[in-house]
Amino acid sequence: MIIAPNSQVWFCSNIPFDMGYRHTKLYSSKSEQFTDISGKSVFTVANCSYFRDSKRIRVTIPMSIAYTVNYLIYKNTNFENKYFYAFVTSCNYINNEVCEFTFEIDVIQTWMFDYEIRPSFVVRQHIANDAIGASLTEESFEIGDPIVAKSFADPNSRNFKICVLTSFKATYDSSTGKYTYATPEGKYYGKTYSGLEMNFFGTDQSANGFIKAVVEDEKTDGIVAIFMCPEIIVDNPTQVAKIAINLYPFNEVDQPSAANTYYESNLFQGYVPKNKKLYQYPYRFVKVLNGRGGAAVYKWENSGSKSPEGKNMFNFRLYAGGSSNPEMILAPTYNGEVSVLNPSPSYSLTNGGCVQCSWSSDAYKAWLAQNQGQLQYMDTHRTLTLARGVVDTFLGGNATDASWSYPSTSGLDKLSGGDFVPVFNPSKPVGSSNSVRTAANTLVDWADQIARKTAILKDHEVLPPEAHVATTAGQLAQDSGKSGFTIQCCCIRKEYAQIIDDYFDMFGYSVNKVVQTINRHTRQHFNYIKTMGCLIKGALPGEDKYRIEKIYDNGITFWHTNLDLIGNYSLENGSVT
C-alpha cells in the first residue's frame, strides 16, 4: 500500500534497518522514533509529489547525495500528522538536477504504535531472566563429546578391611594366646537380622593368623565367607554408615577441595560464557561412576541443595551397610528433594556387593585336628590288644578263631583302605597249647596297626591345601582402586561452547510455548523474537497486518541502542532490571 507523500520528505542515510526485517529498533514513543531516525536525514524536501502507481518519487537533489540515501520519512497531509517510514530500494539518474527514488513502506516502523500482539506461540526469544535454570527447554545443537573438567575419587568408598564372617564368636585370650569360641547372638544390622559374626582385620597378616587359629581349633567349617568390607562400617557394623559429600559450583568462593567437600572449576577449557543456559545440561553436568560399570548423570539446575551464597550445589549422602555382603549407595538431594537428611532414592547409584575373597587351609592339619579322637582310640586299642596277647601267652589256652571278634568299620577304617584289626575276646576259652602262636599273632597285629596308622597319616599329610574359592565380580576394579564412587564435573569443549554462546547471543533461547504477553524489551541492548502463527490486532491495512505477522514468524531482532550500534552483538545484553 502506497500513501501519497505530498507534504514533506526526509531523505536519510546510514539507517541500519534491512528490508528482510532481521533488524529494527524498538522505540518507546512516536516522538522518540521520529527524532532518532530523522536525525540521519541528509536532505529534506517540502511539497513533494510522487508517481501514483509506480512507487516512485522524483526530487531535485544532487546525485552525490542521492546515492547515499537508503531510507526516507514522509508526512502526508492526507493522514493528518502520521509519519510513514520507507526503505529506498533504488536511486535512478534522470538528469543533472533530478533523481528518481523507488521506495517500499517499512511496515514495522510505520505501524509500530498501531497494533498489539495477541497471545502467540513463541519459538525463540531472549527471556527476561537469564539465571541458571531459568530456561529448561531443550535445544538442538551439536555439542561433541563432553570432557571431564575435574574429577574427584571418593576415598570413603575405596578404603576396605578384611571381614571374616563366622558362625561363631571368637574371643582372643591374651594370657593363653588362644581363642575361645561361643555361639554369637543374632542381631539387626541396620534393619536386617543376622546370626553370624563379623570379624574385621586391617592387614593380611592378622587375617591369616585368625584363619590359622580357627583351623587348628577345629572350627574351619565355621568360616562362612571372607570379603572386603568398606572401612566406614567397621566401627559400628550394626548401623548403616552415612557420610555427607558436598560439591560446590564453579562460581562459589574458590577453595581447595577438602575431605568430603569438593569445588568445581576449569569449565569449558577456560572459556567464560555470557549466556547462563550454557551452565546447564547438556553443556555442563555432573557424572558419577560407581566403579562397576554403572554411571548416573545429574543436572546442576535440578540440584535440591543451595550453597551459602544461594547457588545450586550437590549434596550427596554415602550409605554403607550389610552383614553378609555389604553394599554402598550414593544418593543426591535432587530434583525436588529438599531434605539433605533424606536424599532422593530415585536417583541413587549403587556400588554392588563387596568383593568376595578366596582362602585356603592346610588339609592335613585340619584333618588331624578333626580326627584326634579316633587316632587316640587307635593307639589305646592297639595297646590293649598287645596287653591281652601277653596275658594270654602267660596264662595259656586254646586260641581259636572264635576267640577273636571284629568291631564295626568306622569312617577312619575306610580312609585306611581296609577293615580294622581283630579284637581278642577273653570270655571265650583259650587253649594253652596255642599260647606261643597267640603271642606271635598279637605282635604281628600290633605292628600292622602301627603301619596302618602311619599310612593314614602319610596319605593325609601329602594332600594339597584345601581351597575355598569365592565367585566374585569387580576384583580388577577393586585391585586398581577404581571400585569406589568417582564424581566428575563435565562440560563441552571450548570450541562448541563459543559457537553455542554466539548463537544464544543472537537468537536467545528455545521457548516453544504460548506466551500471553510478548515483551520486546527484556534485555539491555537487543531482543530477538520468533513466533509461529503470530496474530496481531490493530488499526492498519490488512496487507501490512499480514506482513507484520509473517515478520514475527520469520524472526526479528529489536534493538535498544543508538542506530550506529545496531548489529553489534558484542554489547553486554543482560536482563533489564
Structure description:
The chain contains eleven helices and 34 strands. With 577 residues, the chain is α+β, with helices and mostly antiparallel strands. Strand 12 and strand 13 form a beta hairpin. Helix 6 packs antiparallel against helix 8. The longest helix has 27 residues. It is rod-shaped.
Helix proportion range: 10-25%
Work out the helix count. Answer: 11
The whole-number mean of residue pLDDT values reads 82
Class by SSE composition: alpha+beta
**What Rg do the Cα atoms give?**
48 Å
Report, as a whole number of angstroms, the end-to-end distance.
Answer: 40 Å
Shape: rod-shaped
Strand proportion:
25-35%
Give the low-pLDDT segments.
397-406, 408-421
Q: What's the count of strands?
A: 34
Largest sheet data: 6 strands, antiparallel
Write the layout of secondary structure elements.
Blueprint: E1 8-13, E2 23-25, H1 30-38, E3 41-46, E4 56-60, H2 63-66, E5 69-75, E6 83-93, E7 98-105, H3 107-110, E8 115-117, E9 120-125, E10 147-153, E11 160-166, E12 169-173, E13 178-182, E14 187-189, E15 192-194, E16 197-201, H4 204-216, E17 223-230, E18 241-248, E19 261-263, E20 284-289, E21 295-298, E22 305-306, E23 312-321, E24 327-332, E25 349-351, E26 359-361, H5 363-370, H6 372-395, E27 404-405, H7 411-416, E28 423-424, H8 435-461, E29 466-468, H9 475-479, E30 486-491, H10 494-507, E31 509-515, E32 526-532, E33 536-538, H11 542-554, E34 556-559
